[in-house]
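Review form for a predicted model. The reviewer records the input and the model, then writes brief findings.
Reviewer: anonymous (R2)
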Amino acid sequence: YYLFKPGVKPNDLQSAFPYIKETVDLSNKLKIKKWQYQSLILSGKYYFQVNNPAEGKKNFLKVINECRKLNDKTDLADALDAYGTLLSNLDPEKEKILQEAVSLYASVGMEEKRIENYMKITTIYFWGGKIDEAKKRLYQNLADLRKINFKHQQFAETTIVYIEIFQHDIQTALYYALKSVKRMEAENDYTFGDVFYMRLGDVYNHYG
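Model under review:
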């Protein structure tokens, strides 16, 4: 609870640590691999939260190295996903780690997780200023989401709108802005409604 609570304070995180340690100790006593992996991943996330990435990395690498030895592709992919997600977009290892997760998820048929990690790499390109490559990947991401009938495609669509506005393709931007708003309203998912409406407003502003 404390580890993922929004706006956590240092004292809250410290409150979480005894429970995490207890989880690690218990999983080791029971010697159930899945629980051992998950407790170490949780511990790794904790250390990243308290700004101790070196210790967090140790926990993730324990899981990663053990999964490699056992050729456990699914748990390895999950560990790489969790670790790579926490790394800074400026860390050159992040893309490499997430790309391995993409390949592993593909090999075990976990398509939604593959797409999710593919999108995380796209985010690296986007914030790194590689806009053309990010746009290409976003369109691929959208196509992949349609294939698995994933409902919440509006998040990819609104990012495409941002890029198309930036590159002055206003007609395409309008098309995807309208689609993203329509999809959001159809699903009654207004979590980021202000973003979608503002993006549509940005497009109309370009029409004068």
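Findings: The mean pLDDT is 90.
Further findings: The chain has ten helices and no strands.
Recommendation: see findings above.
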